[in-house]
Amino acid sequence: MSANKVLGIIFSNIYDEKIRELTETRTMASVPFGGRYRLIDFVLSNMVNAGINKVGVITKNNYQSLMDHLGSGKPWDLSRKREGLFILPPFSNGNSEYNTRIESLASVNRFFQHSNEDYVFLSDSNYVCNIDCKKMLESHIQTGADVTVAYRFGRIPEKYADTVSYEIDPDGRVRDALVKPNIDGACNYGLPMMIISKKLLLKLVSDCVSRNQYDFERDLIQRNIPNYHFNGYEFPGFFRSICSMNDYFESNMALMQPKVRGELFTPERPIYTKVRDDPPARYGLGSHVSNSLVADGCEIEGDIENCVLFRGVHIGKNSKVSNCVIMQDSQIGQNCRLDYVITDKDVVIKNERSMMGFQSYPVFINKGSIV
């Protein structure tokens, strides 16, 4: 199947409340990750690498940062006269903005009507993985499925959002689904992405709205499994869902592992992001760096260990920074001691400050704060 027959749809605000510290002034999709990326870079790159050349990003609020990052879509080769990248701002028929995926899909019905694609690839943006969407699309066509859902086999991660456990036949057909199940062992739990024909999606969304049913997992997926051919596509690779600040911290720390980096950043399916022309990182005399990701534009004059440093970060002399995520353009003064700390952008930590969190409860410092 040609991927240009597929329309990509990304939900940018779903689960904002899960990491309210980072989404107070931005969407979940625009949360910084891994030294130079935003969360939306992964799902958007997955779609583009599969040949999908028309993507709509459904927004709700706090999307200025997202728009600044995406721009015209040029880094993803989506800056085009036809097709390309579309920002879909909130539109509601009622008096309040939407809160569910079904409401958001109903609100962009006109966008669907003006799109010529036959299929829709739906995805949230609160996860990190590099999935071959092209193979998932091919599986959808070969099996003759009405809907294809991605899943993985294993234990459901703690605090995993809107969990769906699937009962899947050996041939891949989904027979049943449990929503938010109480399962102790391993199971086939759903990933936040699916493929469905545009015609069927609009029908199911319309049916849900007319019945005042707005739970995507229960009303659109679970209720319709007996009526349509649902197929499962297993993804065994690296996948991390961001559903808490601890998830965010651990997902960044996982990048220290060569195996994880090898699965996320492959030459065959690169992860694209907005380009910022910074000079290479500079390391001062006496500085020491161990097992860390250091982005371009950083100045390191102290010691860092097991850290993710975003672009433009400065670490002062004699400072020791361990197990931290330091976001863009933050300044760490001299003789500081930081351990298990997450700083948002443009944070200034003055000389001789000490802060210590714990692996399961890192300290967070808001954007633009001065300590």
UniProtKB/TrEMBL annotation:
<keyword id="KW-0548">Nucleotidyltransferase</keyword>
<protein>
    <submittedName>
        <fullName>Glucose-1-phosphate adenylyltransferase subunit GlgD</fullName>
        <ecNumber>2.7.7.27</ecNumber>
    </submittedName>
</protein>
<dbReference type="InterPro" id="IPR056818">
    <property type="entry name" value="GlmU/GlgC-like_hexapep"/>
</dbReference>
<feature type="domain" description="Glucose-1-phosphate adenylyltransferase/Bifunctional protein GlmU-like C-terminal hexapeptide">
    <location>
        <begin position="287"/>
        <end position="352"/>
    </location>
</feature>
<dbReference type="Pfam" id="PF00483">
    <property type="entry name" value="NTP_transferase"/>
</dbReference>
<dbReference type="InterPro" id="IPR011832">
    <property type="entry name" value="GlgDAde_trans"/>
</dbReference>
<dbReference type="InterPro" id="IPR029044">
    <property type="entry name" value="Nucleotide-diphossugar_trans"/>
</dbReference>
<dbReference type="GO" id="GO:0008878">
    <property type="term" value="F:glucose-1-phosphate adenylyltransferase activity"/>
</dbReference>
<dbReference type="Pfam" id="PF24894">
    <property type="entry name" value="Hexapep_GlmU"/>
</dbReference>
<dbReference type="InterPro" id="IPR005835">
    <property type="entry name" value="NTP_transferase_dom"/>
</dbReference>
<keyword id="KW-0320">Glycogen biosynthesis</keyword>
<dbReference type="InterPro" id="IPR011004">
    <property type="entry name" value="Trimer_LpxA-like_sf"/>
</dbReference>
<keyword id="KW-0808">Transferase</keyword>
<dbReference type="GO" id="GO:0005978">
    <property type="term" value="P:glycogen biosynthetic process"/>
</dbReference>
<dbReference type="InterPro" id="IPR011831">
    <property type="entry name" value="ADP-Glc_PPase"/>
</dbReference>
<feature type="domain" description="Nucleotidyl transferase">
    <location>
        <begin position="18"/>
        <end position="222"/>
    </location>
</feature>
<comment type="similarity">
    <text>Belongs to the bacterial/plant glucose-1-phosphate adenylyltransferase family.</text>
</comment>
